[in-house]
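Sat 14:20. Reprocessing the chain from the morning session after the first attempt stalled halfway. Input below, unchanged.
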Amino acid sequence: MGNPHIVVIPYPAQGHVIPFMELSQCLAKQGFKITFVNTEYNHKRVLKALGENNYLGSEISLVSIPDGLEPWEDRNELGKLTKAIFQVMPGKLQQLINRINMSGEERITGIITDWSMGWALEVAEKMNIRRAIFWPASTAVLCSMLSISKLLNDGIIDNDGEVLYHKLFN
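Finished this time. Tokens:
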């Protein structure tokens, strides 16, 4: 058996893709083979940014799968993008993994996915592949997000996120 072969899946936004690429480069330096999965839209952007001086090396393969939107549709409409992603990308990811596993290359041994792409964990579980979530932003942001329901339940903030000051000082 060769080196571990990891599929890396960022959420399709710059603040997610770049940290995932940095993580992938660190893993590649440790001997991991990486298949970096972008949406088709972001894949083209990454290739353009890399230009002819592709410094990723042979251990990182860049691949793409559809995000479910047409090329002309606005990817800044996050609700629409997220809905399309959930409908299309799980099946496309499973097809990609099957294709890699049947190609004679090293089989996929793990998936590292963005918190926002949790559906990939379900694909990994279904395919009996090890899985992990990576959070590319600050810990403070994650803690805030995880605390929203408690803040709502405790009456510290309202449904619009406004602080209910009378609750803070009583």
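The first helix runs from residue 14 to 29.
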